Amino acid sequence: MSQRARDVNKRIQSPINLDKTIRAPPSKPVVKFGTVEKAEFENLGTTVEVVLSAGTVKFRQKEYVLQQFHFHTPSEHRIELEYFSLEIHFVYKAANNATLVLGALFELTKDGSTTALLTVLAASLDEITEPGSVTETGH
Ligand SMILES: [Zn+2]
Fold this sequence. Notes:
139 residues; mainly beta; Carbonic Anhydrase II; globular; binds zinc ion
């Protein structure tokens, strides 16, 4: 493999160390999150996953619909070699079946505060302690 191919792989192959050598895309994704009364929440054995279609992303003239989101702890990706406490991957599909994944990195707070999304999910976590178990989230 050439040095150029190794450099390209370093930028596009997961996990990625995000640093100053990686340029931002020329256009930003337009993200819209919806709300649901409940969603399927499942223990897959290696992660927990929330299955829902309440959200879209428009990126490079293509629209993607949210399929699920799941968790990585610690984060899969790094910024300047630093891991984060949690990373959520929001997985989207376009009509032509193309996949788009948005990653959100989380840090622990000093006061223990969290987000509404994580609070709702934490309330149901004890219902899916066994791999393969499924429950429903709240709103
Ligand atoms: Zn993932």
